[in-house]
Amino acid sequence: MNAMTTDEYRTVYWPKLERAIEHLLTQNPMEHISISYEQIYSHVYKCVCQQHSELLYNDLMWKITSHLEQVSSELQASPPEHLIENFNVALTQYTAALHCIVPVFIYMNKFYIETKLNRDLRDDLMKLFSDHVAEKHVSTLLPLLKKAHSMPFQVKPSTMASVVKGLYALRPDWVPLAPALFSRFIPQIHPPALESQLPYYAAQDKKLQLELSQNGFTRGDQSRKRASEES
C-alpha cells in the first residue's frame, strides 16, 4: 500500500468522505452520491492504516458538528407549535444516519477511538446531538411537551413518546426538570411507591381524569363505547 500524504488525504480522500457523510446526514433522495458504502469503508480503512486516524476523527466530528449547528438554527426558527414535531424529525433523521455512519467508520472506531480515546464512536456522535441541538432547546421543549401532554392528541402520542424517550436517552439527568412527564413514558423511572404516598398518587390520578373530562374525554363516554363494541 502506497503511503498517503496529508495533502493527499486532504485533497483526495476527505472530500469524498465528506460528501458521503453529508448525504447520509441529509438523505436527500434527489441528490446523487458517487460513492458506495464499500468505498467509504475502504477509504476509512486506508486512512486509518496510513496513520491518519486522528485527522479523520477530527474531520468527522467537525463535519457533523457543523451539520448539527445548522439543524439547531433551523429549530430555533421553528414556530412553537411545530417545535416538538420538528425536533422529533431531526432526532429521528440523525439517529437513522448514525445507523449508516457508525458501521462504515467501524475500523476507525475499533483501532483509534476505542483503543486510544477509550470511547465509542456512536456515543461521541450522540453527545454531539445532545450538546449542539438538544441542550439548546430542552428548556423550550419541556414546557411544550408538558402542555401537549395535558391536552390529549394535540401532538401525536407516538411523537410525544419518541421525543421524551429520546431526551431521556440523551441525558437522563434531565428527568428532574419534568419528572411527571418522563414517568409517563419511561417505565420504572421512579423508585417503588411507598404506602404513605398512595394519597398523592390518587390525587394525581383524579387530576388527570379531570383534565381528560375537560377536554371531552369522560368515563361515561368510554364505558358506552366499550359497551357498544361488546354488543
Description:
This protein is 75% helix and 0% strand. The protein has helices spanning 6-26, 37-49, 53-76, 80-104, 106-117, 121-149, 157-170, 179-185, 198-214, 219-230. The chain is mainly α. Residues 14-208 form the Cullin N-terminal domain. GO terms for molecular function: protein kinase binding; ubiquitin protein ligase binding. Residues 221-231 have a biased composition (Basic and acidic residues).
Key words describing this protein structure:
mainly alpha; CACUL1; protein kinase binding; Cullin_N; CDK2 associated cullin domain 1
Outline the secondary-structure elements.
Elements: H1 6-26, H2 37-49, H3 53-76, H4 80-104, H5 106-117, H6 121-149, H7 157-170, H8 179-185, H9 198-214, H10 219-230
Helix pairs in contact: 1-2, 1-3, 1-4, 2-5, 3-5, 3-6, 4-6, 4-7, 6-7
Quick summary of this structure?
With 231 residues, the protein is mainly alpha-helical.
Mean pLDDT: 86
SSE topology string = HHHHHHHHHH
- Helix/strand-derived class? mainly alpha
Euclidean distance between termini CA atoms: 76 Å
Low-confidence stretches: 220-231
How much strand content do the residues show?
under 5%
Major sheet: size, sense and barrel closure? none
Tally of contiguous helical segments: 10
The geometry reads as: elongated
Oligomer: single chain
- Count of beta strands: 0
Helix content: over 70%
Rg, nearest Å: 23 Å
Domain Cullin N-terminal: 14-208
Region (Disordered): 212-231
Pfam family, one: Cullin
GO molecular function: protein kinase binding; ubiquitin protein ligase binding
